TrEMBL record:
It comes from Winogradskyella wandonensis. Residues 51-199 form the DUF7477 domain. Pfam families: DUF7477. The lineage of its organism: Bacteria, Pseudomonadati, Bacteroidota, Flavobacteriia, Flavobacteriales. It comes from the Bacteria. InterPro entries: DUF7477. Residues 1-22 form the signal peptide. This is DUF7477 domain-containing protein. Keywords: Signal.
Length: 290
């Protein structure tokens, strides 16, 4: 190989590392595009995002996505027509007592996850959920999902946390005709097939070495899109917002960040933060609206 060919190959490899794939559902069409991921807007700080949470609360924003991956907490807070009077708790052990107390206070689980040695529970009012239940299982809880469906509930959270699967199911979600699947590779083909059936993604995460995805009708979402990239998708989040869409979730798995967004979520005025430590201050700033 002569020098000019070697140089060209080097440039192609270098440029390709700055691109990521994404897809958008619009009028039943699926378009794949390469998108530049160059940006310098990402910042990391060496503390859990407690300050960011507090800041969010002060700005009357609520936690709508919170996950841990690649050594950082990824937090999204939104103004919402769905949530109010939100609380969060972190615990070393599974927070079953805190869940019970929240239910007694007319709150329901809106986030339940694990990262960096902590269980994180977020409960909110005004979700419309009722008769909520949770289960933890060593094996994937397919029987519990079927039982919940038979009782008229739908999946509102499903994730492998620490050493167990955690399933949360609720009534009053408006969701119907749910299906779930697990895949070794990112399930882009499955997403397209379900979009064609007007079933949109209502849950996506990477758990126990597999992508876990739940499809539903009745979410109210439209114009749904997803993106994956190696770097945190700060540029892609801005593009979602510019397209009048909101972030549904940001999750990390199998070496990539997966961003899910749509219109019709009921979320607006969103902010995102990434922190090494839990973002409690950022949550409070979002809540208070000062």
């Amino acid at each position: 190989m002569d020098f000019s060919k070697a140089l060209l190959l080097f440039l192609l490899i270098t440029l390709s590392s700055h691109y990521s794939s994404f897809a958008t559902k619009s009028d039943n069409q699926l378009d794949y595009t390469l998108k530049s991921s160059d940006d310098n807007s990402m910042s990391f700080t060496a503390y859990f995002p407690e300050k960011e949470i507090e800041e969010g609360y002060r700005n009357r924003k609520y936690i709508t996505s919170l996950s841990y991956g690649n050594g950082v907490w990824a937090l999204v807070m939104s103004r919402s027509s769905k949530y109010n009077n939100q609380i969060w708790r972190t615990r070393i052990e599974f927070p079953k007592d805190e869940i019970k107390k929240g239910w007694e206070d007319n709150k329901t689980i809106t986030t339940l996850t694990y990262g960096n040695g902590l269980w994180v529970l977020v409960m909110s009012e005004n979700t419309g959920y009722y008769s909520q239940s949770w289960k933890t299982r060593i094996e994937f809880p397919k029987d519990e999902i079927r039982k919940g469906w038979d009782e008229g509930k739908t999946i509102t959270h499903l994730e492998y946390c620490k050493d167990k699967w955690v399933l949360v199911m609720s009534k009053g979600t408006g969701l119907k005709e749910q299906t779930w699947m697990t895949r070794n590779d990112f399930p882009k083909d499955e997403i397209k097939k379900n979009w064609d059936k007007n079933k949109l993604v209502t849950l996506l995460n990477y758990s126990k070495g597999k992508w876990v995805i739940v499809f539903s009708k009745g979410s109210g979402y439209y114009g749904q899109s997803w993106r994956t990239r190696i770097e945190f998708p700060s540029t892609e989040i801005k593009e979602l917002w510019d397209a009048q869409k909101s972030v549904i979730s940001v999750t990390y798995g199998d070496g990539v960040w997966a961003l899910l967004g749509a219109k019709g979520t009921g979320f607006y005025g969103q902010i995102w933060r990434t922190r090494v430590n839990f973002p409690k201050d950022e949550i409070t700033r979002g809540w208070s609206g000062s």
